[in-house]
Amino acid sequence: MIQLRESGIILFCENYERVLNFYTQKIGLPIREQKSNLAVLDFGGSYLMIEDNGTASTTPKTRAQNPTVIRFNVNDFEDTILELLNRGVNVDVRSFNWGKIGVIIDPEGNRIEIKD
Fold first, then answer.
1. What is the distance between the alpha carbons of residues 57 and 11, in angstroms, rounded to a whole number?
2. What is the pTM for the complete model shown?
3. What 3 state SS string does 34-96 have?
4. Rounded distance between C-alpha atoms, residue 62 and residue 89, angstroms
5. pLDDT level of residue 86 (50, 70, 90 thresholds)
6. Interatomic CA distance for residues 8 and 1, integer angstroms
7. What is the C-alpha to C-alpha distance for residues 83 and 68, in angstroms, rounded to an integer?
8. pLDDT grade, residue 1 (50/70/90)?
C-alpha cells in the first residue's frame, strides 16, 4: 500500500496572478508556499497548487475542457455563501434531494462547488 503523506490538486492557469488573487482573496485560501509562477494553498487538509501554463476560458469550461470540480464541503453552508457573496463572488445556489451546492466559476472558467 502507498504510504500517503498528503494529497493535492494542481490547477494550471493562464493568468497566474489573477487566479491566485481569486483563490486567496475571494475564496480565502491561505498561501502555504509561493514562488514566481507557483503557489501552494491550504485546501482543508490537502493542498491546491496554482501554477502557470494553463488555458483560460471566458465561459465556464465544459467537462471535456476540465473534467474536475474543486469542491469545498463546509460546516455552515449559509454563512459561507453569505461571506463569499460579501467578498464579491458570484454564487449560484442549487438545491437537490441530497443537499445544496453553491456553484462558482473561477476567473478562468473552472467550476468550484460549495457543499453543505
1. 14
2. 0.93
3. EECCEEEEECCCCEEEEECCCCCCCCCCCCCCCCCCEEEECCCHHHHHHHHHHCCCCCEEEEE
4. 20
5. very high
6. 18
7. 24
8. confident
pLDDT tens-place string over residues 34-70:
998 999 999 999 999 999 999 999 999 999 999 999 9
Rg (alpha carbons) of the chain, rounded to whole number: 14
Burial of residue 100, with CB atoms counted within 10 A of its CB: 0-12 exposed, 13-18 middle, 19 or more buried: middle
State the cell numbers at 11: 490547477
Q: Which residue has the cell 465556464?
A: 60
Mean pLDDT along residues 65-80: 96
Contact 13, 108 (CB under 8 A): yes
The cell numbers describing 89, all together, are: 463572488
